[in-house]
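Help needed: design a sequence for this.
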């Protein structure tokens, strides 16, 4: 009653069903039949179940007759829930290879498939126990409450029995449901049939979840005919029975076979299955058909083939047979020829071939240039472009024959390379050559060929005087042309000749370079500029067709990597530093010699001598005769003073010399002067001397009188050594009455006898007389000074 309530519920609420359609899985043709074993995991029909108990294992017996050999065995297991896909078959682990599922609203069901041929062939007759099939974790209360909790298994066994007629056995599988309000009928078609004879025809079903107690509108039809037998009433086909054992307690699964010879016709290629059920869920998992099969069995064999040297033509002898056929192979059967999967030609058999007969043929084929000389030839019989059989036959496994073909072409796979080597230091133009690389290039992937070397084309063509040691050959000319002959080892008249040149290049011998030195410049840091090419002529030593490169290290020099890009203006990075020079043959740079030399930067002698100090003549400056200091420099006969400079860098680089060293006014106080001394001897660096010139404030000279009469002599009270020297001085002049009449500083002109102080006296010429002064130099070393001066007009 529970399923009927479920159906009512489904009428009210929309439900969804998802399943897999029945399709042909595999086919067998020959003296075959099938049987099936299996068992349920249910303890009773779920329609009457009060709980959800279910087994995790069950067993069944296989009993084949003598002479019946297992050809294939497939196990299906199924149940409620999302599924357990790893089980044990006689304690051997089996995992699903294909899986099926059904979904009806929130109720899910599963089925699984695995090929267990090897197990059944090994175990043979006897008990088969399926275990570790645990569905308790997947069955939920809805399955139990609605009476749709189930589990079980079945092994379908196809066996060969030579006493049987030739049968065609088709195994179809999927997972399709019938039994809901929206899906109370199910129809599917079985294709790929070939009904030759209806006698003994049968069809078997593996279905799940059927109940013996539910038979509301339940029917199974083949081509519109209701199927039934002693175990399966016409109105309750899926009732938990096993046609192979006669069992009626296969709860909620059916393993049934029906005789159908009256429901099919000779020539049928398909059959229609219909199921109806208004209350009972039925889930069809697999269908097996068994029909008499009288068919041909075309097979192809390659008997022989022949090729011609350097030709793309090939002659094939082949045989088409019907040895295993049970029917005539008709004329017009397709035979196709392929080279590396490229179709060459299609022909058709001219005559019928009776069972057990054969016929041999010969065909000439032209192999396209796009196909390599070594290829795989395939001959296919009775197969279309997708390798499906064109006419029905017993066993398509022998419809293809293949063979590896070598056309007999002899060719130069890749052109041999010219070989170039460097002469040894004898430079006699003779060296040893190894031709093995050219052997590999010329032969490539060819089989059954040999490579021989000759000194002339004529010798190669006529097999005269071959080179006996091609991997250790001294040249006899320079350059020399060598001829390689690729020849078939099976057909000596099939060959091809190519040539290459061997050359010996002179190896230059490096001359001896000189070590280069430079005097340290500018920053006195041991870094200087060098012209490495000063050694080029020494290294080349008048040899012709040579080049020279310079390198920082020996590895780069030997590998020809990272040459110095600016050898004529190279700045060293170490002191001293080794430079590597490579002299090479300009025509073949692999021939080279390596030599090295050193760069060194010599330290510039730097000596301090005593400088010159003078009185400040204004703004901390004075005129100096720089040569007055140079007597301190002890010059040797090869040395001379070459200039005076304001910086060490200028002195080192001989730039910006002082133009008038004998009358030079300093611009800084103190100021350093650099004197450069050069030697006329080679390899001797300049010597730099330096000294400081400076000025100091000296005591000023104050005159005792002056005469501002305009005669240009002593017209002002001018104090020598004061102006622009003591720049912050202050001078005050007083008359004999102590009145300030003049105040001066560095920015005021010397006193000319005119008053610049006083309320009524500013700008007045003062009379002859004695005046008093106070001179404050604002310098703690001097003064202040107080005294008198006589003004005489």
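Sure. Designed sequence:
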């Amino acid at each position: 009653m529970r399923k009927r309530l479920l159906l009512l519920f489904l009428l009210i609420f929309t439900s969804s069903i998802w399943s897999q359609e029945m399709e042909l899985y595999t086919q067998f043709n020959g003296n075959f039949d099938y049987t099936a074993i299996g068992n349920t995991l249910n303890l009773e029909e779920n329609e009457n179940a009060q709980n959800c108990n279910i087994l995790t294992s069950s067993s069944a017996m296989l009993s084949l007759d003598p002479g019946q050999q297992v050809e294939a065995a497939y196990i299906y297991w199924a149940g409620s829930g999302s599924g357990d896909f790893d089980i044990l078959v006689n304690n051997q682990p089996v995992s699903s290879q294909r899986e099926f599922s059904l979904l009806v609203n929130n109720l899910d069901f599963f089925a699984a498939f695995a090929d267990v041929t090897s197990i059944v062939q090994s175990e043979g007759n006897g008990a088969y126990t399926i275990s570790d099939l645990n569905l308790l974790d997947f069955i939920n209360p809805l399955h139990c409450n609605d009476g749709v909790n189930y589990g079980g298994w079945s092994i379908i066994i196809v066996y060969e029995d030579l006493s049987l007629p030739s049968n065609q056995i088709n195994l179809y599988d999927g997972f399709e449901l019938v039994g809901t309000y929206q899906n109370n009928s199910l129809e599917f078609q079985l294709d790929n049939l070939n009904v030759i004879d209806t006698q003994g025809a049968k069809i078997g079903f593996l279905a799940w979840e059927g109940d013996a107690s539910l038979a509301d509108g339940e029917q199974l039809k083949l081509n519109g005919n209701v199927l039934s037998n002693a175990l399966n009433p016409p109105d309750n086909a899926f009732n938990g029975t096993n046609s192979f054992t006669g069992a009626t307690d296969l709860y909620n699964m059916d393993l049934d076979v029906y005789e159908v010879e009256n429901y099919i016709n000779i020539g049928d290629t398909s059959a229609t299955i219909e199921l109806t059920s208004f209350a009972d869920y039925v889930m069809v998992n697999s269908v097996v058909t068994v029909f008499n099969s009288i068919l041909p069995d075309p097979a192809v064999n390659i008997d022989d083939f022949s090729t011609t040297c350097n030709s793309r033509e090939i002659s094939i002898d082949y045989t088409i047979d019907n040895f295993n056929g049970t029917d005539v192979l008709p004329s017009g059967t397709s035979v196709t020829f392929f080279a590396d999967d490229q179709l060459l030609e299609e022909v058709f058999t001219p005559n019928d071939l009776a069972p057990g007969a054969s016929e041999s043929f010969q065909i000439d084929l032209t192999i396209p240039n796009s196909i390599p000389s070594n290829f795989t030839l395939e001959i296919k019989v009775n197969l279309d472009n997708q390798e499906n059989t064109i006419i029905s036959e017993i066993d398509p496994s022998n419809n293809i024959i293949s063979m590896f073909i070598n056309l007999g072409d002899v060719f130069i796979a890749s052109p041999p390379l010219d070989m170039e080597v460097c002469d040894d230091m004898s430079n006699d133009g003779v060296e040893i050559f190894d031709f093995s690389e050219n052997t590999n290039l010329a032969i490539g992937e060819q089989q059954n060929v040999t490579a021989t070397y000759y000194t002339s084309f004529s010798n190669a063509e006529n097999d005269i005087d071959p080179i006996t040691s091609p991997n250790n050959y001294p040249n006899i000319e320079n350059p020399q042309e060598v001829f390689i002959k690729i020849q078939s080892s099976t057909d000596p008249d099939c060959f091809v000749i190519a040539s290459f040149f061997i050359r010996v290049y002179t190896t230059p011998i490096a001359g001896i370079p000189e070590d280069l030195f430079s005097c340290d410049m500018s920053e006195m840091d041991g870094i200087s500029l060098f012209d490495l090419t000063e050694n080029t002529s020494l290294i080349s030593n008048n040899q012709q067709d040579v080049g020279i490169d310079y390198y920082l290290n020996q590895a780069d020099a030997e590998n020809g990597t990272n040459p110095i890009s600016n050898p004529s203006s190279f700045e060293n990075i170490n002191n001293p530093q080794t430079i590597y020079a490579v002299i090479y043959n300009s025509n073949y740079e692999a021939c080279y010699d390596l030599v090295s030399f050193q760069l060194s930067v010599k330290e510039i002698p730097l000596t301090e001598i005593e400088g010159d100090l003078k009185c400040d003549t204004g703004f901390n400056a004075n005129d100096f005769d720089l040569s007055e200091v140079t007597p301190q420099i002890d010059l040797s006969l090869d040395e001379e003073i070459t200039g005076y400079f304001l910086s060490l860098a200028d002195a080192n680089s001989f730039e910006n010399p002082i133009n008038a060293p004998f009358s030079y006014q300093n611009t800084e106080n103190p100021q350093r002067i650099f004197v450069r001394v050069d030697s006329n001897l080679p390899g001797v660096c300049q010597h730099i001397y330096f000294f400081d010139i400076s000025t100091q404030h000296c005591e000023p000279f104050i005159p005792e009188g002056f005469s501002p009469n305009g005669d240009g002599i002593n017209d002002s009270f001018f104090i020598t050594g004061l102006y622009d020297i003591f720049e912050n001085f202050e001078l005050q002049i007083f008359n004999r009455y102590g009145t300030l009449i003049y105040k001066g500083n560095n920015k005021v002109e010397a006193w000319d006898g005119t008053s610049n102080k006083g309320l009524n006296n500013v700008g007045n010429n003062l009379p002859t007389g004695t005046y008093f002064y106070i001179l404050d130099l604002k310098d703690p070393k001097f003064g202040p000074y107080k005294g008198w001066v006589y003004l005489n007009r």
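Residues 700-793 form a domain with the Immunoglobulin-like fold (CATH 2.60.40).
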